From TrEMBL:
Record protein name field: Carboxypeptidase family protein
Cited Pfam families: CarboxypepD_reg
Organism: Fulvimonas soli
UniProt keyword Signal present: yes
Record-level Gene Ontology MF annotations: carbohydrate binding; carboxypeptidase activity
Keyword Hydrolase assigned: yes
InterPro entries for the chain: Carb-bd-like_fold (IPR013784)
Length: 125
């Protein structure tokens, strides 16, 4: 019999449909991957002229100079636990331990500023 289905017959998808299906799945996977960040930032206020160093419990470290605005920011840090240290004139002034950096997160760590003013006073410098 012509046109009759034979037992065990499997209908196949046209080749173009497979390509579109694979492309759609790949696009969805790329969106999901970009939605979840694998790094974070540590930022805050600190006395002008200081340096802030972040050290990962895994061993890596980075630092940033405190800007004239009294702000600092260190981006692109791997997730994990950090020790954040304020240094002034080459000496450790203040340290915050066990600072957790989680997925897509930014953690604010502020250090005490003289008279609660982290920025340089106008006319100084």
């Amino acid at each position: 019999m012509k046109g009759a289905k034979q037992p065990g017959h499997v209908r196949r998808m046209p080749r173009g449909s497979w390509i579109l299906a694979i492309a759609a799945v790949a696009a969805l996977g790329a969106q999901g991957a970009s939605a979840q960040s694998t790094s974070g930032s540590i930022f805050g206020q600190a006395p002008v002229g200081g340096t802030v160093t972040v050290k990962s419990n895994a061993g890596g470290s980075r630092h940033a100079e405190v800007k004239d605005s009294g702000r600092y920011r260190i981006d692109g840090l791997r997730l994990g636990m950090y020790t954040v240290t304020l240094q002034k004139d080459g000496k450790d002034v203040d340290t915050r331990s066990n600072v957790p950096l989680k997925v897509g997160g930014a953690v604010e760590i502020d250090f005490a500023c003289p008279n609660d003013q982290c920025a340089k006073p106008e006319g100084s410098g």
